[in-house]
Amino acid sequence: MRPASHPNARDYNDGSKEKPVIWTVSVSRLADLFRDITLEYDDRATIEPIDLGFEDAARHIRERMATERCDAVIAAGSNGAYLKSRLSVPVVIAKASGFDVMQALSRARKITPDIGVVTYQNTMPALKEFQDAFGFRIAQRQYATEEDARAQINELKAGGIKAIVGAGLITDLAEEAGLAAVFMYSAASIRQAFDDALEIAKLTQLESQRGRGTPGGAGTADTLRAKHGITDLRGESAAMEELRQTVVLYARSPATVLIQGETGTGKELVAQAIHRENPRMAAGNRPFVAVNCGAIAESLLESELFGYEEGAFTGSRRGGHAGLFEAAHRGTLFLDEIGEMPLTLQTRLLRVLEEREIVRVGGTRPIPVDVRIISATHCDLEQRIRAGRFRADLFYRLAVLRLMLPPLRERSDDLIPLAVWCLKNALAALGARPHPNLQAEINACAPLLQSYGWPGNVRELRNLMERVALFLAAEPLQAISPGFMLKAAPELMQGVTAESACAPLAAEKIPATSTENISQTLARFDGNRAAAAKHLGISRTTLWRKLRQDREQSVVR
Q: How many Å from the N-terminal Cα to the C-terminal Cα in the chain?
């Protein structure tokens, strides 16, 4: 039996001004944390727990939404990811912060030095440096399904791991395997999810009220939205200014756009900005739907894009399922990694672009769609055309407007400001305050950062700064010096010249320290040269030599 409906969970059409309705979904110990936090939000929203998971939860929610109202759903981990891809209602995924992970590892370390961390789909690369610096033995595993998670935990147990850190499902399975389990979520992270859900729920209500009585209006609240705009394209370089101007220009046109650029340059960010800068899209809260063509199996990608009719294949939903083209109707569909789309689907996509209609898998009825297509790729599509892996006619239909994103190594003026901004955000996410001299300390590391090639571009810079923030949060008094930066990110050594690498300390040749910086640093440490040298990432001998050179230059001047 399903839980009784809350009296406030009425249909949208009643016209009443009610509190937002939020459902929390969990089948693990996270439910207790949800329940505790719910009391704090009782005066601002109608919140109801659903003690189900995965397909059971998805089916339950779809059935109830046929007659009831829900403005947002909160879930976590693999359960949240599953629901997000299968529900039309906005799903907010509660995420453990870096500080949560640190606290969980600290609790686990009190139990045993042999710790396993099991996370959904992706591991945490920053933990490798963290364990090396603080003497932890951390074995990381990722999982996709419950059975996969159980197998990973059993493998860790066989390898001598005594404690497992993870989300609710993982800790339940760890205890089932006879291991110590440490839950990684904190109340602060769950409150953030509730805050996010509250904001989304209010927006959903507002859009629903605007859409009443207008064709298609009721569906607007259930679609995805572009979260980023042109102000999120950060950087003051000439290349970024030109990019922003092009975004504004392309936003005025309904033509297709092909965005090309290396991985991590922000292709989806630019696509969202183009969508948001279009007055028609922004004013009407039109949907922005994104799909990675390289991340979904060919057999699934077809049904995800075009939808399917009931009975189209074994396991298909009753009543069929609308695809992403239908979800993006009157808005934008962003096809990321378009170069990975199978040839058979390229033919179907070309027909959609020509006919402006789709046919669901297993169906015969054409469904008109009004969708703007923005696609992106990191590969050379023209080379793939020559290799017979991409249709030339589709390429020209997708690339009416073209945009090439500059790699980070060609935006040297933006590198340091971006590093500072990323580091401040990462520290804030950990609940740590930035050092008052953070800007000057990052400036001292500029030659080191600028000598690196940044193959992962802005995404790599952001991830690296999250790692640096983790180290700083663990050692709050630690100054950011080139030596410290190399300790946290040894890959930066790839940019250090052979001459520098032969020096006693590679980092000593890196800082471009001025007389004023050295004097300020000495004053900061009350003339203690050892402390000043450690802060700058150089030896005391190098510090003394720089001081002598600066004095000699001052005499000449």
A: 87
Angle 515-524/540-556 helices, nearest 10 degrees?
130
* Alpha helix positions (H), 331-430: 343-355, 381-386, 392-398, 412-429
Q: How far is CA 515 from the centre of its chain?
A: 41
Q: Tell me the pLDDT tens digit for each residue of 35-81.
A: 888 888 888 888 888 888 778 888 888 888 878 888 888 988 778 87
Torsion of CA 130, 136, 140, 146, to 10 degrees: -120
Contacts for 266 with CB less than 8 Å, ≥ 6 apart: 233, 405, 457, 458, 459
Residue 260 β-bridge partners:
377, 404
Closest CA to 446 of 510, 364, 373: 510
Q: How far is the C-alpha of 336 from the C-alpha of 207, rounded, in Å?
A: 27
pTM exceeds cut of 0.70: no
Beta strands in 311-461 (DSSP E): 332-336, 357-359, 366-368, 372-377, 401-404
Structure-token pair, residue 434: 């930035």
Which token pair is 211?
A: 């859409």
> Cα–Cα distance between 466 and 153 in angstroms, integer?
27
